[in-house]
Amino acid sequence: MMYSRYSRLVNLQRKEDSRGSVIENCVSENTDTRGENLTRVDTGHLVGAVKVEDKADQAIRGQEEDSISLPGSGLQPDEICRDASLDQLWDRLCNPPTKCCSLLKRHLTPELLVLLRDRITEFGGRLEDCIRSGCENTDSGVGVYASDPDAYTVFAPLLDAVIKDYHKVSELNHPNPDLGDIAKLDFGDLDPSGNLIVSTRVRVGRSHDSYGFPPVLTKEDRVEMEKKSQEALNKLDGELKGSYYPLSGMSKETQKQLTEDHFLFNDSDRFLRAAGGYRDWPTGRGIYFNDNKTFLVWVNEEDHLRFISMQKGGNLKEVYARLVKAIRALESSGLSFAKREGLGYLTFCPSNLGTTLRASVHIKIPKLAATPDFKAFCDKYNIQARGIHGEHTESVGGVYDISNKRRLGLTEISAIQEMRRGVEAVIAEEKRLGGGN
User: Fold this and answer.
1) Segment 111-148, tens digit of pLDDT
2) Annotated binding residue at 208?
3) 199 marked among binding-site residues
4) Residue 122 three-state SS
5) What is the rounded CA–CA span in Å between residue 311 and residue 76?
6) What is the CATH code for 38-74+176-432?
7) What is the model's pTM?
8) Which residues bind ATP per the record (predicted)?
9) Burial of 392 per CB tally in 10 Å (0-12, 13-18, 19+)
């Protein structure tokens, strides 16, 4: 693979910046990504997925939860910093128009700027490609995107520091992938009564290992990736069998149906736009879902691929097993995904890498949520509670989104088990307090 070189240079670079730090108070404690949240929306017998605002970057994006940008709407990237030089970006970061306490601001020192400014990745990525969004949007929480998989090697002195800070780890020693044996899972339906859990979802992100990320992609790259992805998706069978819907040339009837199902992703995130995420919109983008609408794939949204398994109720075993089957089937179909020793699977935003896995339930817990120690209770189990419309939103009808906190430093099956134990503890405590009826 083009980027797969684990040279002595990286080890030296990492030793150069071994500083451990804690994110400042103005940066969210959330360990989830700034925009990957999918909120399940009950639509009759369906469970839809819709992109919502995760305010982990402490930002107001001005996007409605149900806003949909249909193919052809084509919001163009902001021009504030798109053509700015590295020195101009640095000047804006040093003299921000808004309060700036991003991880980029914290870790990009003058010394690192000198060290990294002339480096170029195997995909043609430069430092300015990684920091452009954070310099344009100085109210970012993270402020850094990787220009491509090789950026995690070439710009390791900066990205390693950001990753450690965001994920709250002192070392980057992520284990090898382990999805577990789905035939021997020791859990099933976490809420057999159906009184508490409304729906369950597990998702992961994946990147093709032979392509860069949005800042360095061409229109031709996106079209090639879409073609390869579609060819692999078309090979899925059984319960994973479905249809692919490219955003380019999508009919009004299909647009209407996918809008009603809350399946269409949009092009309205200013952070992603500044990073080049919407260039050539909507070319090369599309959505795949199975016939039962319990397995969904986003192609070239933020990451190259986003796999989502979901359904009503609390059967985590079924949801996770479906996702694992899909991952293994797509890997065996010829797709090869970018990963790096010590970092796991690589994604556009460093907040997502590692397992890239987020497992969550929407659950009715009004009694527990009303207690003053609710957050501390969740922290004890390494889970996170939020409103169903994303980070820092309010609960609706006592329903909360409960998910695993940790993505980096543990295996996929460990992350699922951690989430499972946390949800079981939440259910037990809610019942102890008189809820769950």
Assistant:
1) 999 999 999 999 999 999 999 999 999 999 999 999 99
2) no
3) yes
4) coil
5) 35
6) 3.30.590.10
7) 0.81
8) 199-203, 262, 306, 358-362, 386-391
9) middle
Tell me if 274 is assigned to a ligand binding site.
no
Which residue type sits at 63?
Q
> Is position 39 annotated in a ligand binding site?
no
What is residue 398's predicted lDDT score, i.e. its pLDDT? Answer: 84
Residues 232-255: tens digit of each pLDDT: 999 999 999 999 999 999 888 887
Break the chain into its structural domains and give their ranges: 38-74+176-432
Q: Consult the annotation and say whether 203 binds a ligand.
A: yes
Each residue's pLDDT tens digit, 46-75: 344 444 333 333 332 233 333 333 333 343
Find the angle CA(153)-CA(159)-CA(165) to the nearest 5 degrees. 140
Q: Judge whether 45 is annotated as a binding position.
A: no
Q: Which residue has the higher pLDDT, 38 or 425?
A: 425
Is 358 annotated to bind a ligand? Reply is: yes
- Hey, what amino acid is at 416? I
* 362 marked among binding-site residues: yes
Helices (H), 102-218: 103-107, 110-116, 127-136, 151-154, 156-167
| Cα(263)–Cα(109) distance, integer angstroms | 41
Q: Tell whether residue 136 is among the known ligand binding residues.
A: no
Q: Is 144 within any annotated ligand binding site?
A: no
Pairing of strands 295-299, 286-290: antiparallel
pLDDT at residue 87, as a whole number: 95
Asked whether the CA dihedral 101, 103, 105, 106 is positive or negative, the reply is: positive
Q: Is 387 among the annotated ligand-binding positions?
A: yes
Q: Is residue 243 marked as binding?
A: no
Tell whether 371 is in a known binding site: no
Q: 195 pLDDT band (50/70/90 cuts)?
A: very high
Residues in Cβ contact with 87 at an 8 Å cutoff, skipping those fewer than 6 apart? none
Residue 388 marked ligand-binding? yes
Given its phi and psi angles, is residue 103 left (phi above 0), alpha (psi -120 to 50 degrees) or beta?
alpha
Annotated binding-site residue? 114: no
Flag the least confident range among 22-31, 184-193, 206-215: 22-31
Q: What is the dihedral of CA 10, 15, 17, 18, to 10 degrees?
A: 130
**Amino acid identity, residue 355?**
T
CB-based contacts of 412: which residues, under 8 Å, 6+ apart?
Answer: 177, 178, 179, 180, 204, 355, 357
Distance set, CA 265 to CA 52, 71, 207, 301, 323 (Å): 9, 10, 18, 7, 20
pLDDT(431) > 70: yes
Average pLDDT of span 267-285: 93
Residue 398 · residue 433 · CB < 8 Å: no
Residue 361 assigned to a binding site: yes
